[in-house]
Amino acid sequence: GHRGANWLERPEREQKERTDLLFELLALRPGDTVADIGAGTGYFALPIATAIGPSGRVLAVDIQPEMLAIVEERARALQIDNVVLVLATETDPMLPDNDVDLVLMVDAYHEFSFPREVMARVADALSEDGRVVLVEYREEDRAVPIKPLHKMSIDQAKREMAAVGLVLDQVHDNLPWQHVMVFRRQVEAQ
């Protein structure tokens, strides 16, 4: 929650979680529309906004207005003006249909109270070539120093995303503790 916002910005985060590698894996393009669901303090949203340039936009999505206020303050201080604040509900991320090139969820999906409802709306929001990048702590690895309820396996993610028509396209396991799972809309046979 917003009371723990400082934990999201801890100085050792990049080194321990290798967030720099995650940025590389996102393959951001100038002009992209990116939704950061569970944006928190803007840890990812703000650098993404810079990377995609003024022709792109980041939808910083959170259910906590306090977190969005932090993102707004930080964006203003950094003079970043292509971040759109989106107050979501527990069942709806409030994304525009067929418009989002990349939906990023870092250690957020497992926290959803209504994952199927949220992901159905996420699937509707994807552009024709849109991707969902789900970053979750590896359940399969007992050495990952995170409580089991905050972990997720690839198999679990595949099953849950399939329920809304998303299929696993790629998995990157080069982060120290997390899976980076890339999902796309299921292509229907002609």
Care to describe what's here?
The structure is a single chain. This protein is an alpha/beta fold and 190 residues long. It is built from seven helices and eight strands. Strands 1, 2, 3, 4, 5, 6, 7 and 8 form an eight-stranded mixed sheet that branches. The model has no long low-confidence stretch (mean pLDDT 89).
The geometry reads as globular
Strand content: 25-35%
Arithmetic mean pLDDT: 89
Distance from first to last alpha carbon: 45 Å
In total, how many beta strands? 8
**Whole-angstrom Rg:** 16 Å
Task: Please trace the helix and strand order, writing H or E for each element.
Answer: HHHEHEHEEHEEHEE
Coarse structural class? alpha/beta
Number of continuous helical runs = 7
Model regions low in confidence, pLDDT < 50 over at least 5 residues: none
- Helicity, as a percent range: 25-40%
What is the makeup of the main sheet?
A: 8 strands, mixed
Keywords:
28% strand, eight-stranded mixed beta sheet, alpha/beta, 190 residues
Sequence-ordered SSE layout with sheet pairings:
Elements lengths: L4 H4 L4 H5 L1 H7 L7 E5 L7 H8 L4 E6 L2 H13 L5 E5 L12 E7 L8 H11 E13 L12 E2 L1 H9 L3 E7 L5 E8 L5
In short:
It contains seven helices and eight strands, in the order αααβαβαββαββαββ. It has 190 residues and is of the alpha/beta class. Strands 1, 2, 3, 4, 5, 6, 7 and 8 form an eight-stranded mixed beta sheet that branches.
